[in-house]
Amino acid sequence: MKIQNPETNQLPQGIEINDIKLAVDSSGYPLQTIIAQKLLDKDFMIQDEWSYVDSQSNSLRTMDIVAQKMLWNLEKYQPRIRPELNLLIECKQSNLPYIFFLNNTKPIRYEFPIIAGVPHEEITISSNDTISTYINPVYATLGLEAEAFFRETPEFCSTFSKCSRRGKNIELSGSDAYNGLVLPLIKATQYFESSQKSKSSAVYHDAHLTIPLGIVDAPMFGVRVLEKGNELFPLPWVRVLKHESFENNEAYNNQKLYALDVVHKDYFDTYMNEHLIPFAKVFSERVHKHEKVLLAGKGFIRDMESQWPPSLEERLEVKSFIKRTSNLIPKLLKK
């Protein structure tokens, strides 16, 4: 049955349908709809206008899209740690470009990707040839640092701006870019991580590979600052870093370097198919492989001191008392 529109449901005088269309096209909602459909086609589950609590203002805010994809097959078996890929997405449209000031170095370690929901945020690794232990975040324990998606492929930046017009001139606005993309994505990620915490005593856990992602329908350009002059070039994928400090009595844990990806809308399929999805597959395989280590929060690497630096993931085993003490007892007796 077709819905009949009443005669009174019309635009008022002075407003044309093209005016409304122009406002819709520039709002970001068309892009949000397009990206959501692309994710549905890739077997993601979608939540539009996902709400989260801003930790600073304690107010309720929304993220354009939160997407979820299970990385395990329920029909085959039920793992105790169930890997998932979660995308927290904010969409932006603009006729004017975003400018990314690229870093000259890439970080060794940073809070990306966030792995939420696991029973232990860090894994303590011991060996048979030393009494020292090695404490690692989960992503490093799984060897994700060695993957190209983590460090090698993307360009990094700590500062970026959005161009705006002032008369005939073009100006850069860092606050628009920060408040429109960085701030909401980082806060949403922090809320998501906190909301997914599980008790270590639980039987089943989820391992959420969490990717904050800004998707822009606007020109994206990178700037490399050189002594002889700035180099400017188009760049469809940038990883943006955001440093935060916290009040914490533990000196080693009072600051974090967060990150989010900003991707051009026409690079989104390439980003997903050639970079993120293969990375998520590696993550899933290693969660299954090292499930017992992740559940216990403890692992073992044989001869870690004599073969340093260790290749953590390849040599990682489940810790047992016998392995730990087999070589240490003779060493301690000699002392």
From TrEMBL:
**What protein does this entry describe?**
Uncharacterized protein
Q: What is the lineage of its organism?
A: Bacteria, Bacillati, Bacillota, Bacilli, Bacillales
